[in-house]
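To whoever is on call:

I kicked off a structure prediction for a single chain this morning and the downstream step that reads the tokens threw a length-mismatch warning. I double-checked the sequence; it's 40 residues and nothing unusual in it as far as I can see. Pasting both halves so you can look.
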Amino acid sequence: MTLVLERPQRTARLLRTVESSLPERLVDRFTRLVDSLIAE
């Protein structure tokens, strides 16, 4: 299967919008770690 973007510029703009910063990624990973430890 091959996927082809219909609107590459629009997709690039959207990806820049949702791209998280390093602090956001660290908080997300910490939250996931705590959640997994609580679930055990």
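Update from on-call: the warning came from a stale cache, not from the record. Cleared it. Sanity check on the structure: The mean pLDDT is 90.
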